[in-house]
Amino acid sequence: MCLTIDIHTHIMPEHLPRWSQKFGYNGFIHLEHHKTGCARMMKDDVFFREVQDNCWSGEARIQEINQHNVDVQVLSTIPVLFNYWAKPDHALDTSMFLNDHIASVVQRYPKRFAGIGTVPMQSTELAILEMERCVKQLGFTGIEIGSNINDLNLNEPQFFPIYEAAEELGVSIFVHPWNMMGEKSIGRYWMPWLVGMPAETSRAICSMIFGGVFEKFPKLKVAFAHGGGSFPMTIGRIEHGYQVRPDLCAIDNDKNPRDYIGKFYLDTLVHDPTVMKYLIDMFGADSIAVGSDYPFPLGEDHAGEMIKKMSLDHKTKEQILERTALEWLGVERSRFV
């Protein structure tokens, strides 16, 4: 029987330091535990989100994923904790703290969890340093990064040494939208999450394609959240733009963007079996892995449930539920069984 491996789940420590007090400036998230098993995420004195103990407790998570028939979760930090805006040394401190927590959860339950780290992307040198620590000391095989870094696209040359190091170390990369473009102008109706996030993911994919990242680093294993966001549904427009205005689109890479379909990974978080079938037909099951965004409300309640209910052959289901995740992570099945 195949495993169900969820590559898109988020976790945070139960107790965060008051980084603002330690570093002397505001903007960091802390937790207010106002009742048992429940806490408010606060950005300084502003409420951000309420979370339950399944957001920090390995034990609570295992109890839930047992009920959901999920075998393995890949743990990554919550994007609001990236702290790319902070001073680089301080972002390194917060990254190390978050990564050490993930490693501690994985160490306690190695058959149920794998970890991918966060790194201070605003500093190329420190990002590589922490990525190396994640691999060599914590045993991670991947990192999570944002769809942009302080509004810089992922094709900026300063990030190339990070990709080169990731390729050499065999580190997988999970790209998650954050700091959504136009967020301030579309704040009503939760549109930053409903509209901005899919656009951010397409922004990241297009940046890496047109900026030549996949061309320069062909062995880089990159997965994008939320089924690739709006990219798969707008690939025709993107390709057409490349064809009619190569002077604008093909500045750094003259290859057709459609040629890169199947050269990167997507998760399954699209909430619609028709869209999922479209992704399978376009990208192939070997480019798609289960991703739920656990434990947040825009996620899939039971990771992989939609795939299991779809009219797909056993080989396709097995590929999406298990094999693609193992290939992307670069680990053997025996790691979890």
Keywords:
337 residues, TIM Barrel, 6-stranded parallel beta sheet
How would you portray this structure in words?
- It is a single chain.
- The chain is an alpha/beta fold and 337 residues long.
- The chain has one domain: TIM Barrel, CATH 3.20.20.
- Helix content is 38%, strand content 16%.
- The protein is built from 12 helices and 12 strands.
- Strands 7-8-9-10-11-12 form a 6-stranded parallel sheet.
- β7, α4 (124-136) and β8 (142-146) form a beta-alpha-beta unit.
- α3 (88-108) packs parallel to α4 and α4 (124-136) runs parallel beside α5 (160-169).
- The longest helix is centred in the first third of the chain and has 21 residues, at 88-108.
- The chain is globular, with a radius of gyration of 19 Å.
- The termini are close together.
Task: Please give the domain count.
Answer: 1
**Percent strand:** 15-25%
User: Could you give me the name of the CATH homologous superfamily?
Assistant: Metal-dependent hydrolases
Question: Which stretches of 5+ consecutive residues score pLDDT under 50?
Answer: none
What portion of residues is helical? Answer: 25-40%
Q: Supply the helix-strand structural class.
A: alpha/beta
Count the DSSP helices. 12
C-alpha geometry: globular
What is the level 1 CATH name?
Answer: Alpha Beta
Number of strands: 12
Q: Please report the distance between the alpha carbons of the first and last residues.
A: 11 Å
